[in-house]
Request: fold
Amino acid sequence: MRGSVLPGDRPDDGTDPPSGVCQTMRVFDFFSGCGGTSAGLRAAGLEVAVGLDCDREAGLTFRRNFPEAIFVERDIRGVRARELDGLVGRDRVHPIVFTACAPCQPFSKQNRQKRADDRRTSLLDELRRFVRRFRPEYLFVENVPGMQRGCDVSEGPLAGFVSFLERAGYSTRHDVVQSARYGVPQFRQRLLLAATRLGPMELPSPTHGSGTANPAYPTVWEAIGSYPPLAAGDEHPFVPNHRACSLSPMNLARIRATPEGGSRRDWPPGLVLDCHRAYDGHSDVYGRLRRDRPAAALTTRCVSLSNGRFGHPVQDRALSVREAAAVQTFDDGFVFEGSINSMAQQIGNAVPVRLAQVFGRHFLNHWRSARNRT
Reply:
């Protein structure tokens, strides 16, 4: 990557990229977080060039796992598009992919305090400035399904962005997809948008489930069954990030009273919280996962027993950081930095790696076909 770099970033040292890194499509990951999208696209054979995010601890994780890339630790609202000229290359010879997973909390069902003036709802529009200046060959956007509301009208984050792309000559496709259909051991619905200016392109076909070569979904146990046992509050000395939150004596008694796949409904009366005695909602909290099926959707509290169905299927604790990452299909070589709460947030916010990998392969195949037509 030649040219000037943003203040505080690592300059190009002139060395060759790591062996095996594709030099034909380059990824610019906006709102990168820890790098779930980047990890998937790299696994598909793309080169990760730049990550941009204002989260300091997510940035530590990104830098550790993508030493070949530059990380820009800034709020996108304060970054001028021309500041990336030296990184993107106005006269580039390789196609580029812009990815964006704008903060999703304003659209999440878990957010009970949505505000119409929440500035995060406009963050996707910040990407327009960079698209206008650099005209990437491909775009990949992921978010929670709530962003899709308003797609059929002129207002709304997604509708406005899609209209902008189509006016700029891009072919776009978007849909709400089930991550388990793409090989992720997790029932996690996400809104995906793919766009290209190299001709029509459909979304990639599912790889798992009915009508595919893999009719069964990957399971929780396939993802986490090989990790060594761990007690609540402990950390394994040799497996990176295999660390579990501690439990109070009462919560330890509660999980011991919860069978695999069970919930607080299985507890004897003495263990039931007062707030749950006359309330039957939020039944997944304090729940255990099942070994033989995908996990429930992980959130930013995915290592906390009291915040969802995040209990280990058979051990008396919640998922460890490493296990939660495996459910999000990060490989064991991907190491997270920061506090345990920050690591859980990074994992819960991430695009599942395997989902991004499927899209990366799809983009590569489409680009090769487009190149052969010219």
In short: Residues 353-373 form the longest helix (21 residues). The CA atoms of residues 284 and 322 lie 21 Å apart. Strands lie at 26-30, 47-52, 70-72, 96-100, 138-143, 171-178, 186-187, 189-196, 295-296. The radius of gyration is 21 Å.
